[in-house]
Design brief:
This protein has 183 residues and is mainly α. The chain contains 10 helices and no strands. It is 77% helix and 0% strand. α2 crosses α3, α6 packs across α9 and α9 packs antiparallel against α10. The radius of gyration is 18 Å and the shape is elongated. The two termini are 26 Å apart.
Length: 183
């Protein structure tokens, strides 16, 4: 369902942040959430712990995907393992683009729409121009705040799992590694 939404977004110019978050939840987050839930079920965990681990997976999955969007613009290509700006070049509806469309006004909106509508363009020029718009609109800061929000929510659910912290340590460390990645 998330993949279908992602494909449908390619044809739309009015994707909202809420729709985007739901798409990445269905495309990315539920996979991680399901894996955690299955583990909890197999371990005969109480229902409240099963539910909290599922929610932990959902929230950390959202943070992870938002971070992936961020790294596609602001990551180091040598470390990230792919060309920076691929989402910009393809006009992919990401948190970054949606926020830029919502916040741009006047000349910024005109320039953003010009780049989105361009059929032929120099790749590096488009990436640089759209990134400059993101910077002017402080989209990088908004993305970091949203990533942090979902990471903190994930920690809240992990903290609610009723087992000793020592037994949650590896899962907490894994989540921290996911959020400190540069690739």
């Amino acid at each position: 369902e998330g993949q279908r939404m992602d494909m449908d977004f390619e044809k739309r110019d009015d994707v909202t942040e809420a729709e985007y978050i739901e798409m990445i939840r269905l495309k990315t987050s539920v996979l991680l959430a399901c894996a955690l839930k299955i583990g909890a079920i197999l371990a005969d965990a109480p229902q409240s712990d099963i539910d909290n681990l599922y929610k932990f997976g959902e929230q950390i999955g959202l943070a992870f995907q938002l971070q992936d969007d961020y790294l596609d613009v602001y990551g180091d290509a040598a470390v990230f393992g792919k060309n920076i700006g691929g989402d910009i070049v393809s006009n992919k509806k990401t948190f970054m683009l949606i926020q830029a469309q919502n916040r741009a006004s006047g000349q910024q909106r005109h320039e953003l729409e010009r780049w989105i509508d361009a059929v032929t363009f120099d790749r590096e020029e488009k990436v640089a121009a759209v990134t400059a718009l993101y910077n002017a609109l402080h989209i990088d800061q908004l993305a970091q705040e949203k990533i942090e929000h979902y990471f903190k929510e994930s920690q809240r659910y992990l903290d609610a799992v009723r087992i000793p912290d020592a037994r949650k340590q590896e899962l907490a460390a894994y989540a921290m590694r996911m959020m400190n990645r540069t690739y």
